[in-house]
Design a protein that fits this description.
By secondary structure, the chain is an alpha/beta fold. It has two domains: 62 residues, no CATH class; 197 residues, Rossmann fold, CATH 3.40.50. A seven-stranded mixed beta sheet has the order 7-6-5-8-9-11-10, sandwiched between helices. Strands 1-2 form a two-stranded antiparallel sheet. The chain has a two-stranded antiparallel sheet with strand order 3-4. Glutamine (GLN) binds next to loops.
């Protein structure tokens, strides 16, 4: 196991990139789980010793755009720390807004049972259960590896969720009558976009790929229209495709477009036509 001085590591990375010692220190502090002041209090930060495994991670972060969350196996979502690895999407900040909107809906309509389709790390399902412990929460995913991560997070964060492995609603059909609200952040990225976007290349393809126009998941969902037409549903999509998605979902119920906290219209609420 070799070690190197921080100054040398910065020079190595700088060969390819222009970066300040502080940006390296910030990453180092996350990887070593130490306060930034620990490093800043040293006489000469260039002399700080970095272990081989940490130095390799710092390089991977700066030179290969590898996500910090996968290097630390941590992602914070609505104030809770989730375990993440390459089997799950790194939960996004806009999805926090999706959950906050949904908590309001659950309260307003006195909803008792919800299902999160495509739960990934479990971020949505677990956050709902943590905020409203009296609500019954189901969570499904087509990926058994993702479900393993979600189960680990539920136990780490001490909540009880009904997990089910399967595509769309298939694994919860026996319980569908109880479920009043469906929430999902499905794969909705256009295939071409994934291929040209470096920061998406380490995340599971199955979590992102919405097909050529990004709408495959929503179109396929129409197969379940009969079952879904008396449910409240809320979905995340992109602001670029929201019209297409709303058009597809309007075949199930009345649709409403809602903005995230950056003002981008990217959520669709579908209400049963009463
Ligand atoms: N809910 C998590 C979040 O918001 O961070 C993960 C969302 S990720 C964009 C989409 C998830 O849907 C992935 O975990 C993927 O495995 C799952 N998925 C993809 N196709 C699916 C399908 N047909 N049925 C159920 N889950 C699916
Ligand atoms: N929000 C993610 C992104 O823009 C996409 C996640 C998804 O497909 N649901 O990278």
């Amino acid at each position: 196991m070799w070690k190197m001085k921080l100054g040398e590591l910065i020079i190595k990375i700088k060969g390819d990139k222009n970066l300040s010692p502080f940006s390296v220190l910030k990453i180092l502090s996350k990887l070593e789980d130490r306060d930034l002041t620990f490093y800043l209090s040293k006489k000469d930060i260039n002399n700080i010793i970095v272990e081989e495994d940490v130095a390799k991670k710092v390089k991977k972060y700066f030179l290969e755009d590898y996500p910090l969350e996968y290097l630390t196996n941590k992602a914070v979502f609505l104030g809770n720390e989730f375990y993440v690895n390459e089997d799950v999407l790194i939960p996004r900040i806009e999805t926090e807004d999706l959950v906050l909107l949904t908590l309001n809906l659950i309260n307003e309509y006195n909803i008792k049972t919800v299902a999160d389709i495509g739960t990934g790390s479990g971020a949505i399902a677990i956050s709902i259960k943590k905020s409203l412990p009296e609500v019954n929460v189901w969570a499904t995913d087509i990926s058994s590896q993702a479900l393993k991560v979600a189960k680990l997070n539920a136990s780490k964060l001490d909540v009880s969720i009904e997990f089910a492995l399967g595509s769309y609603l298939d694994s919860i059909l026996d319980n569908i009558d109880k479920i009043e609200l469906i929430i999902s952040n499905p794969p909705y990225v256009e295939t071409n976009f994934i291929e040209k976007t470096s920061f998406l290349k380490y995340e599971p393809r199955i979590a992102l790929d919405g097909g050529q126009d990004g709408q495959n998941f929503f179109r396929e969902l129409l197969r379940y229209s009969d079952i879904l037409k008396d449910k409240v549903m809320i979905f995340e999509t992109t602001e670029f495709n929201i019209e297409k998605t709303a058009f597809i979902l309007s075949k199930i119920g009345k649709t409403y477009k809602l903005p995230d906290s950056f003002g981008k219209e990217r959520f669709i609420l579908v209400f049963p036509p009463h």
